[in-house]
Specification:
Number of helices: 7
Largest sheet: 4 strands, parallel
Strand content: 15-25%
Structural class: alpha/beta
Helix content: 40-55%
Strand order of the largest sheet: 2-1-3-4
Shape: elongated
Order of helices and strands: EHEHEHEHEHEHEH
Radius of gyration: 19 Å
Distance between the termini: 46 Å
């Protein structure tokens, strides 16, 4: 077994993963791999709620770096004096999720926060994918869109955590 890295002090670095959705589950499943090298704490929440919780943890000296995703990471970065690492979803992630959802099925929707990227519109158009594209600007708006999509017969939603959470709440 290799000796511990000399730059590590007796106290392990503390990583705070902040998510109200799927990233929390991913972090919990990966945390054991960091045992002995870092302490991973998963905090549930987003935006102002997350800032409040993080400040409590930071004040207790138990957070060295924050990991979050998407707009939540951007929000936290603008309000904290700690490094915030943003987990970003790329095109491959979206394609994999569409494949898993059954992209050839016309009953799939792809949701984005604050606008559908032009490259996604081109991709869907170029490959003639029967995928409904939507953008939301708040959690309530995402829930509203998903409820309407379910009413219209959509059977799967691909998107950020808030969209997936709303879809699961609707039973899809």
């Amino acid at each position: 077994m290799p000796a511990p890295s000399p730059h590590l002090t007796a106290e392990l670095p503390a990583i705070c993963v902040v998510s109200a959705y799927e990233l929390a589950d991913v972090a919990r499943s990966l945390a054991p791999r960091l045992a002995g090298r870092a302490v991973v704490q998963v905090l549930h929440g987003h935006f102002d709620q997350a800032v409040t919780e993080l400040r409590r943890v930071i004040d207790a000296g138990r957070c060295d770096v924050v990991v979050s995703a998407g707009s939540n990471a951007d929000f936290l970065r603008s309000r904290l004096d700690l490094p915030v690492v943003s987990v970003r979803v790329g095109g491959f992630d979206v394609m994999a999720a569409l494949t898993e959802a059954g992209a050839g099925d016309a009953r799939i929707a792809l949701l984005f926060f604050q606008g559908v990227p032009a490259e996604v519109v081109r991709f869907v158009d170029d490959y003639r994918l029967p995928v409904a594209l939507h953008a939301y600007d708040s959690e309530a708006h995402a829930r509203q869109i998903v409820a309407k999509l379910v009413q219209d017969g959509v059977r799967a939603v691909v998107g950020p955590g808030v969209a997936v959470w709303a879809a699961r709440a609707e039973g899809i």
